[in-house]
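To: structure desk
From: M.T.
Subject: fold request, one chain
Message: Could you run this one when you get a chance? Sequence is below, nothing fancy, just the single chain.
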Amino acid sequence: MSDDEKYAEKAIGWRVLIYIVLGHLLAGFIWLLFYLGSHASH
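Reply: Done. Structure tokens follow.
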């Protein structure tokens, strides 16, 4: 395996990790909006 292939695998791994983290942050933010919205009228 060449260095370029190793670098590509590492880059893909980091990209997947970043997408997962950002996806969870976005989902948490949306959940927070719904949570605050549902409790705002009380």
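Reply (cont.): Residues 6 and 29 are 35 Å apart (CA to CA). Let me know if you need anything else for the meeting.
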